[in-house]
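Incident review: delayed structure delivery

Summary: a single-chain prediction request sat in the queue longer than the usual turnaround. Root cause was a stuck worker, restarted by the on-call engineer. No data loss occurred. The affected request and its eventual output are reproduced below so the record is complete for anyone auditing the incident later.

Affected input:
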Amino acid sequence: MLDRKHFKRDSQPVIKWIDQYLREIQKYPVKSQVKPGDIKGRIPLKMPEQGEDISTILGDFEQLILPGVTHWQHPNFHAYFNANSSTESILAEMITAALGTQCMIWETSPAAAELEERMMDWFKVAFGLPKKWEGVIHDTASTASLTAIITAREVATGFRSNDHGVPNNLRIYCSSETHSSIEKAAGIAGIGRNNVIKIEVDHQRRIIPSALESAIKDDLVSDKTPCIVIVTLGTTGTMAIDSVEAVASICKKYGIWLHVDAAYAGSALLLPEYKWMIDGVNNVDSFVFNPHKWLFTNFDCTIYFVKNADLLIKTFEILPEYLKTGTRGQVNDYRDWGIQLGRRFRALKLWFVLRSYGLHGLREKIRHHIRLSQHFVKWVEGNADLEMVTTPILNYCCFRHNPSGKEMSLEALNKINEVLLKN
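Output delivered after worker restart:
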């Protein structure tokens, strides 16, 4: 067991390892090469009876754990959306861990609550979001979208579902490309996955507004209650950018909650040339994006905005005696803004990153990534055996292998691309 009096001495091997890892990360394979059960099989079945020194633990980490790590910060990592980190974010996480702050209400850490509030203000200005919106930091976009669905559920049922249960006629609308977290959230929220209506998409995999309105009309005739519509800025499969403006006008017409999932592409709203993605945002009810995807803030950190925070708080607040304080009503007690009671001090790492890079630095990085993608697109377009599947956007392009001069069925094309993907 380590003595905190010797923290500087005992932390040096770990700091040295982190420094070396970040310098030499390219020497590791991007994806772990172990087989199922390899790691577990090398770890003892029982915890040690006696404590062990840090050098032994660190050595075993390198020998036992590291081989089973997929290196998300590796420059050749191209799976999913990168969870980009930065030196600033790592340092802030170290301070956060040292503080061990519990940020459930203002009283438990005033600085955490007020820094979080100010970070939301910074993003509102930088993104050009409505001034009256308010925000909160969650762990992931899945949690934020669940929060939106539950809030919309309460609004649609006159705030009766929390007390009396969820009726079986609520409907959730999204495109067939929407993230799987929405189906999962439908089950958790008691609405049910069968009540998630997948709307047809166009050639760019964007939701078709006319198809959405037709589905809503059909449900109203069938005594279903439209609850929430989810549009996505940057779908996980093909980076489709749904039209916020077109869908927002439909939601306004029928009085339906509109949630925008901008988990990845939302970061690009820092660029004036991409603010078109949120045309119509004044009619949006909630909005989420992840700084841990493209803003150099290590996982986890999700920003969730709402047009009307009172509806959010009314949905989630509960006040046992041990949480009553004299400052209630004067401050933001963020445990009332979502599912969790206990909350981490996520605003600190965000503050470190935003101050260190600055708005100019963040814009330059994002633009650089987009330029790199454009160079890659030209390379793909110049290769006769490769073809684009959708029009490239931001730092993303969707392509496949299609051998030149060969007539192949879609099934055959999918098979050869699956082989390439797995190898």
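Verification: The first helix runs from residue 7 to 24.
Action items: add queue-age alerting; document worker restart procedure.
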